[in-house]
Amino acid sequence: MRLRPPTRLRPDVVRDLTARVPVTPLGWSLLGAGLVLWVGGAVLGWVELLTLAAAALLLPIAGVIWTLRRTGLDVEVGLTRPRVVVGDEVIARVLVSNPTSRRIAGGRLEVPVGLDVAVYDPPGLAAGGRWDDVLIIPTDRRCILDLGPPLMVAGDPVGTARREVIAGEAARLYVHPVTVRLPALTAGLLRDLEGHTTNDLSSSDVAFHTLREYVPGDDRRHISWRSSARHNKLLVRQFVDTRRSHVGLVLSLASAHFLDDDEFEFAVQVVGSIARTAFLEGQAVSGVAGDTLLPDTPGPFLLDALSGVAHAEQAPDTAELARFAAPVLRGVSVAIVVVGSTADVLEVRRHAQRFEGQTRVAIIVCERGVEAQRQRLGNTSVLYVGDLEGLTRITSAVGVR
Known about the structure:
Blueprint: E1 9-11, H1 25-44, H2 47-67, E2 74-79, E3 83-85, E4 90-97, E5 108-113, E6 116-120, E7 130-137, E8 143-147, E9 151-155, E10 162-166, E11 171-176, E12 196-202, E13 207-213, H3 225-231, E14 235-243, E15 246-251, H4 261-280, E16 284-289, E17 292-294, H5 301-306, H6 318-328, E18 334-340, H7 345-352, E19 360-366, E20 373-377, E21 380-385, H8 388-397
Parallel strand pairs: 3-11, 15-16, 15-18, 18-19, 19-21
Antiparallel strand pairs: 1-6, 2-4, 4-7, 5-6, 5-9, 8-11, 9-10, 12-14, 13-14, 16-17, 20-21
Helix pairs in contact: 1-2, 6-7
């Protein structure tokens, strides 16, 4: 299909005053003026006023009758890709078809695109006829964008009446943040990919610890017959619990933690990059953004959720964020807290102690332009990063230990 020039997006039009009476504000104004003129003409006996009143009253009535014409076209809004990254070009196909057995006159088609509206003027279509056009959608910022539902609009030429008919289903576009694959995440940032042992004893795991004497109730599959024969008593294998990498991500949404919108956007990119890399390496990922739980299933769903997050003055502060995240991320092997340059790192570290004792905590401070560096605050690693290249470099070089 040959691509046509992009359809222009314009601000949304005025909607109906009521759902049942398709009269626009102009139509209501004319009706009101007509009544006033009618009363004035009747009192004063002026034929001219009565003539103007009749015209003012008849125009909206004629407009309503005009909107009753048939608008039975079907509209399909199809996206070439439902998920893109900031900066990618998105083309939506708008297909109009006539499913009836009679010809339907053309009209006005409006496709809401977020807060804007794309306007089309499809021609009349014979029975079974089709017409299509394209819409190029800018993706210069991260967002979740709803396209539609498309509306076939019937209205009179004067603009006194307007009737909208939903002609199809809406589509949703996810504009993901820019992310990078961290090449050595398991070797640096998350060194426990294969599991690291804990002090919790277990009778069934993969990390052998020692032998102990058999007691009734032990699983006979764990009896070491060779050692039992050597010591002339039943001995069973004792294990310790291991913990495979389970990444916990915590993104602050408090405006007080970020210098500006660009810094917050960079923080979202950091969280997305770590989550994407962890998923690609087969690790479990759980996350929270403010007081919202992020999807933990592999695939694009966590990035879908990140497409819609925004910082706010009323978002949870450091203490509230920790109180919410700690129980939600119980059992993770490493908790990574991502904040901006205006956050109090010491306060973040203090509240991060709410995580379980065996959970390692890392704090990533996002500050545009800063040289990537790493510091230690007790048993907590603090990473200062200024861009995604710096994040890649510092996680590859030193990681969080």
